[in-house]
Amino acid sequence: MKFKTILTLLTMIICSMLLATPSGYSQLHSSPRVLLKKTIEITGDKYEDQIVILQPHNGILKVMFRDGFLNRSDQLSIHAESIDVIRFVDFTGDHLPELFLTTKTKDQKKSYHVVSGQGHRLTSLPIPLTLQLSGRFLDGYRAVVLNENTGVLTTVNLAHKKTNYEQAAIYKQGKLIKPIKLSSTSPTLIPMDLDGDGIFELQSKQQVTASNQTIAYSTSQWKMEDAGWRLLSSSVHK
Fold first, then answer.
1. Which residues contact 205 (CB under 8 A, 6 or more apart)?
2. Which one, 49, 82, 125, 231, has least CB within 10 Å?
3. Which of 97, 125, 153 is the last residue of a domain?
4. How many CB atoms are closer than 10 A to CB 116?
5. How many CB atoms lie within 10 A of CB 223?
6. 104-109, long-range: CB within 8 Å, 24+ apart, which pairs?
7. Structural domain containing residue 8
8. Where is the signal peptide (predicted)?
9. 114 and 36: one domain?
10. Residue 228, φ and ψ in degrees, nearest 5
11. What are phi and psi of 85, to 5 degrees?
12. Shared domain check, 164 and 121
C-alpha cells in the first residue's frame, strides 16, 4: 500500500514538472499513459492552451492543463477506471469549449463531467439533474408515469405483455392483483446542438422500469444557464 502511494505521488510530481515547460509536454506526450493531448483555447485570453488527459491509474483519471498566457499549470483528478467519451463543445455560449467526459467505474457505472477553463483554472461544472420519474401499474394493463420535475402524467399501454403479466400473477383478466411501483435508471447524457446555433445542450435518456423490466423511456433536453441547467423539454414514450 505504501509503495502504491509513493508511486502515485511520484507520478504526480513528474507530470507536474513536465507540464511546466513546452519540452515537458513533448516528453509527456510520448508517455504510454497519455490518452489525449490537445492544443486549444479554453480560457478566453486568445492564447492557445494545452490539455493532456492521462489514462486512469489506480482509479484516478487526470486532466492536466497548461495556460498559454500565464504559462502556469493546473490539474483535475476524477475517480474513474476507464473513459468512453472525450469531447470539446461550447455549453455556456461564450464561444469557448468546455471539456465533456464520460467515464466508468470498476463496476461499469457511468459518470459524466463538464470541465471549464474559465478563470485560468480547471473547474468542474455541474451536470443536469436526473428526471425524477415514479408511477405504478393500473387496471387494464396500463401504467401511469409521473414526471416529478414537471408534474406531467403519462399513461403507458402494457397490453403487449399481458400474457407475461397474467402468468406472473400481476394481472388477472385485466384486473391488477399485485401492486407494482415504477422506478427509473440513471441517465445517459449526450451533447447535442439541438438548434444549430453552435451552443450545445445535453440530451438525457432514462429507462422507466418495473420489476427490473423496461416498460418505457424518457428523453429530456437541458441547457446550461448561469452555471446551472434548465430543463427545456421532456417526454415519456415507449
1. 187, 188, 190, 217, 218, 219
2. 82
3. 125
4. 20
5. 18
6. 104/80, 105/79, 105/80, 105/81, 106/59, 106/81, 109/186
7. 2-125
8. 1-20
9. yes
10. -130, 180
11. -135, 135
12. no
What pTM was estimated for this model as a whole?
0.84
Same domain, 72 and 160: no
List the beta strands (DSSP E) in 44-174: 49-57, 60-66, 73-79, 82-89, 98-104, 110-116, 123-125, 133-138, 142-147, 152-157, 171-172
Asked if 174 and 81 sit in the same domain, the reply is no
Residue at a domain's end among 78, 104, 125: 125
Query: Residue 18 in 3-state DSSP?
Result: helix
Q: At what angle do helices 22-29 and 2-19 cross, to 10 degrees?
A: 130
Q: Based on the domain organization, do 165 and 184 belong to the same domain?
A: yes
The CA distance from 31 to 54, in Å, is 9
* Exposed/middle/buried for residue 225 (C-beta within 10 Å: 0-12, 13-18, 19+): exposed
CA neighbor of 154 nearest in space, from 143, 169, 162, 164: 143
**The domain spanning residue 61 has which CATH number?**
2.40.128
Q: What is the pLDDT of residues 19-46, one digit of tens each?
A: 444 434 444 445 558 999 999 999 999 9
154-186, pLDDT tens digit by residue? Answer: 999 999 999 999 999 999 999 999 999 999 999
Give the H or E element holding residue 38. strand 34-40
- The DSSP output letter for 160 is G
**For residue 192, which of 183, 184, 200 has the smallest C-alpha distance?**
200
Q: Is 141 left (phi over 0), alpha (psi -120 to 50) or beta?
A: left
What is d(CA 151, CA 138) in angstroms, rounded to the nearest whole number? 18
Please provide residue 150's backbone torsions phi and psi, each rounded to the nearest 5 degrees. Answer: -115, -15
Domain count, the chain: 2
